[in-house]
Every structure is written in structure tokens, then in C-alpha cells.
């Protein structure tokens, strides 16, 4: 069954965003009596088409979806800015994996800088996030926030139960040293193609954040977040479900 995110709800009607109407009608060619899943504010419903014009499409709620698709562990990915196609890939895959939010960060060796992330680029990231959330049956669209410098991100990192920095030169520490099942809210920080500057790692450590190894091989910037997310969800879920 196809899944959509509604933009607004009025009584038992759910309204799609204007940009999704074409996708609903012309790309997926959903029939008038075909049931679809629609999420709004984290709640899901089975719904069918109610009315349609090229500017507005409403769906009538038939029932509520009880099954949960989200992990109770919220992981936020603080991802150093990397080249455009790699960033697109990371956003798409991280959202398929279940990430709660993505914060693009400028680190010393980021080739792409905060100033390069103009409105159009951010909109592109958000569109990738939305498509990935629809495809992977997420219950909400994870946020992709404005790019910020690592120094700005440090302030936000304080709000998490655990902050793990994937650092290629870390030799000892790994996620095996943490009880992930105990955590609710984890931030992971991943470096750019050229890696972190040692000064950045030292600075983050002063705040009490930990660097971890992902193993002895050096992973590409776009592989590292996916590998780390896989490890964390595995540790948290155990059973492999949710
Ligand atoms: N230029 C660096 C080098 O050659 O040593 C490699 C950087 S790597 C391509 C990009 C980022 O992925 C790193 O900054 C780190 O966050 C993460 N990463 C890759 N391999 C890792 C590993 N084995 N352990 C921890 N983090 C890793």
C-alpha cells in the first residue's frame, strides 16, 4: 500500500501537499477506491480519495493504523558536509535506516561549506528526505536542518543521552563499550571525505563527547554513517524488529 504524508487535517479529511498531487494521480495512478496509508503528526490512517482538483487533494479516513514503524531509539546524525551526490546518498540511506534527524555540519576539512548550502540545496535535501520517508514507511519526515558549523553544533549536542564521534584514528573505544539499550536519544557525528582535524576531536572531547572506532578499515564518508546506524539499531533492537 502506498504511503503519503498529509499537510493538514480537517475532521476526517486529510489533505496532501500540492506538490504530491501529481505523484498521487499521474505517477502512481492511484484509483478512486484504492486504500492508501496517510501519516500526519506521527499518526497513521488508512484512507481513500475524497476529492481531487489539480490544486487540492483530500482523502477520507477509514481507520487508524495501530502498527508502529519507528524505533524508540532516536538517533540524530550530525553529518559533515560532503560532495553533493554523497550528501544526497547519506540523507536517503540514513532515513531508510530510521534516523530521527539530520544536521549538516561544516567541519575544518569539509570541501562544501555552510555558505554553499543555499535555500535551493536545503530544499533538495528535504525533498530527498520526504521521498525516502515515504518509500521506507516512516511515520514522519525526519528533519534536515540548516547547515551549521561544528562549533554551533556543540551547543546542541549537550541535549543528547550519548554523543558518539566516528573517528578514524580512534584505536580503542567502540560502541561495544556502551549500553545502547539504555539510551533514548543519541547523536552521532561523522567526518567529511578528508576526515576530522585532531583539534576538532580534542575540542569535542573537552565537552565530554566520546570518539569511537568503526573498525580498522577506513570507510568512505558515505559508508561510515550507514555502518554506524546499523550497529546502533542492532545493539538497541536485538530482535531485529523496530
Ligand atoms: N581521510 C581520512 C583518512 O584517510 O584517514 C578518512 C576519512 S573517512 C573517509 C570519513 C569519515 O568517516 C571519518 O571522518 C569518520 O567520521 C568516518 N570513519 C571512516 N572510517 C572510520 C573508522 N574506521 N572508524 C571511525 N570512523 C570512521
UniProtKB/TrEMBL annotation:
Its EC number is 2.1.1.193. Signal peptide: none annotated. GO terms for molecular function: rRNA (uridine-N3-)-methyltransferase activity. Residues 70-232 form the Ribosomal RNA small subunit methyltransferase E methyltransferase domain. The keyword rRNA processing applies. It is found in: Cytoplasm. It is an enzyme of class 2 (transferase). One of its GO terms (biological process) is rRNA base methylation. It holds the Pfam family Methyltrans_RNA. It catalyses: uridine(1498) in 16S rRNA + S-adenosyl-L-methionine = N(3)-methyluridine(1498) in 16S rRNA + S-adenosyl-L-homocysteine + H(+). InterPro entries: Alpha/beta_knot_MTases, PUA-like_sf, RsmE, RsmE_MTase_dom, tRNA_m1G_MTases_N. GO terms for cellular component: cytoplasm. Its main location: cytoplasm. Keywords: Cytoplasm, Methyltransferase, rRNA processing, S-adenosyl-L-methionine, Transferase. The keyword Transferase applies. Specifically methylates the N3 position of the uracil ring of uridine 1498 (m3U1498) in 16S rRNA. Acts on the fully assembled 30S ribosomal subunit. Belongs to the RNA methyltransferase RsmE family. This is Ribosomal RNA small subunit methyltransferase E. It comes from Fenollaria massiliensis.
